[in-house]
Amino acid sequence: MKLRLTLVLILTLIAVAAMAAGPAKPADKIHELDPLAGKWQCKGMAMAMGDMPKHDIVATVDGKWIFGGKWLEMHYVESKTAANPHPIEVRAFFTWDAGEKKFALGSIVNDGSYSVETSNGWEGDHITFAGPNHMGGPAVNGRDTWTKKGNTVTYVFEWDDKGTWKKVVETTCTRG
């Protein structure tokens, strides 16, 4: 009888503890962007645009979680070279907008430009953000696409030129 009472008491305590704990808390949606965090070494190409000729790019990216893991900040810095005398530096901030059920990306650039874009999330191995980019004239639609493959990420930025997407930048980045 004592054993039965002890067993019932133990099972009751286990059930109460399980109910108090509730269902497992899901991971924050923003952490689906974990593959983009970390330090990266990048090489690629900037296409000719305006008075800027086509040229090679060498850059670093530092992606880190900020504000309690609710934002991913990426700091992109191109190296100054003879072919790239005016390197680009970008600060990009990603988050999850639970109301819109979309990822959001805001970026600011050392040339005074900025963008505000959204994404539905990963589609297989790539994620694409699209939205208005303000680059000194009327806003244009831009899109940023990251494609992950093993230890590398390919990044492409394109802008909409009257219904045709034109590649502006393409880089391949390796973690490390």
**What does the overall shape look like?**
globular
Percent in helix? 10-25%
Low-confidence spans: pLDDT under 50, at least 5 residues? Answer: 1-26
Characterize the main sheet.
10 strands, antiparallel, barrel
Total number of strands:
10
Order of the strands making up the biggest sheet: 1-2-3-4-5-6-7-8-9-10
CATH superfamily: Calycin beta-barrel core domain
Overall tally of domains: 1
SS class: mainly beta
Q: What is the distance, rounded to the nearest whole angstrom, between the alpha carbons of the first and last residues? A: 64 Å
Find the CATH topology: Lipocalin
CATH class: Mainly Beta
* Strand residues, percent: over 45%
Q: Tally the helices: what do you get?
A: 1
Helix-strand string? HEEEEEEEEEE
Radius of gyration: 23 Å
Mean pLDDT: 87
The CATH architecture? Beta Barrel
Q: Characteristics of this structure?
A:
disordered N terminus, 11% helix, mainly beta, 176 residues
Summarize the structure.
With 176 residues, this protein is mainly β. It has a single domain, classed as Lipocalin (Beta Barrel). It is 11% helix and 53% strand.
Overview of the molecule:
The chain has one helix and ten strands; from the N terminus they run αββββββββββ. It is mainly beta. Strands 1-2-3-4-5-6-7-8-9-10 form a ten-stranded antiparallel barrel. The relative contact order is 0.15. Helices cover 11% and strands 53% of the residues. The chain has a single domain (28-175), classed as Calycin beta-barrel core domain (Lipocalin, Beta Barrel), CATH 2.40.128.
